[in-house]
Here is the input.
Amino acid sequence: MVKRPDGIVRIFSRGALLWECRNLFVNAGLPALANLMAGVTAGQYALAVGFGSGATAPTVNDTDLGAAPKYYNAVGAHTFPNSGSVQFNYALSATADYGALGTTVQEVGLFANGSAAAMPAAIGTANPSWAATTAEVIGNLIVDSNGNIQRCTTAGTSGTTAPAWAAALNATTTDGTAVWTLVALHTAPAPMLAHAVVPAFVFNGAATYQGTWTFTF
Here is the structure.
């Protein structure tokens, strides 16, 4: 039997270690891990961390997070703690990850870039759909007709008919006297490399949650 790589996930808030555990490397991610170890980086490298609301224990056949809402964000810098390990940094930012607001996070997943998905992205949300002639204040979040999450960045009243929504991250849409900015796309990365269940916490934007994901080969 071939031994799977080891992995450990850590979560920090305000610099304090909140939790750590070993993760499970899943079957769908093993070819991408092989490419990583072989130095074949084109099309196969750790791209994103996903934050989901599922609490079911991971299995080797998982291909995505277990339950919506799901929020995916790009991994940060990587380091090499020793000759046999690579460590990826990730975060949920209090000032940027608007698409994750209100999510009860109970699982995390690490993904490669097989689908070349743009980040950040979100699937499933408690935010309302667009509504006509509605007073909007800065910070309000809605789901547009494309399934993307838009954030009000100029207060005003929405129009009588839905606008043609911008489809690129950080692009704006004028809607009556309000302006929206696209903050999360309705898409998901693939394949999943590793999966772990974490103690539940609600991401409310009051603090940035940071973490590390370490592979040991």
Remarks:
- The two ends are 15 Å apart (CA to CA).
- The chain has two domains: 6-117+188-216, 135-184.
- Residues 6-117+188-216 form one domain.
